[in-house]
Amino acid sequence: MLQMSLPRTGSGPALRGRIGAGFSPAPHRYHLYLRAGCRDSLRVRIALALLGLEGDVSTTTLTPDAPDHAGLRRAYEATRHHHTGSLTVPALCDTWSGRVVSDHTPDILDDLALRLAGRPELSPPVPAAHADAVRALLDPAAPRAERSAALASVEHRLAAHPYALPGDRPTIADADLWVALRHPATAPAPGPHVRSYLRGLAAHPAFRLPA
């Protein structure tokens, strides 16, 4: 079975090509390899739905021992000659050349929003404090005190407005926060604003997705 790694366990650096830098933002040109049960894959899948790109970017969700692993392996080999390392998802692939464009999730999310969808309002800058809180909630190795502080920070933020960032609609930041809150590691129980936030997003079509 081909090894799938998230986070990366292979020795090679992340592939960080960008749409617009040698890869034109053409509809139906790109394919995403995702993995069932992968948090970053879930972030990308929600972003596709929020951005209305589900009809423009095709996807393959990999499962253990599935034959679809071979397609991702071929894309890596086309990108790195004689690639023998692990495969990483999410991976954004160019169907015209058969190569992997990027397996760096933040770049993939930016390119989906800014280069393919042309929706910068759905990928606004994220305050450093919010980004730090999301990272702490996603990191099972973070100390319990750090995770508790992160959850308290999110509770305080959600008391002021209904989404991760100020505005009247969910953004890519909500994909990140929702995934972080949906399967948290050990931490105190969420407060009333976090619970209300999760209930509200559960009714949004983009968030009614399999893990």
From TrEMBL:
InterPro entries: Glutathione-S-Trfase_C_sf (IPR036282), Thioredoxin-like_sf (IPR036249). It comes from the Bacteria. Gene3D superfamilies: 1.20.1050.10, Glutaredoxin. This is Cell envelope biogenesis protein OmpA. It comes from Streptomyces goshikiensis.
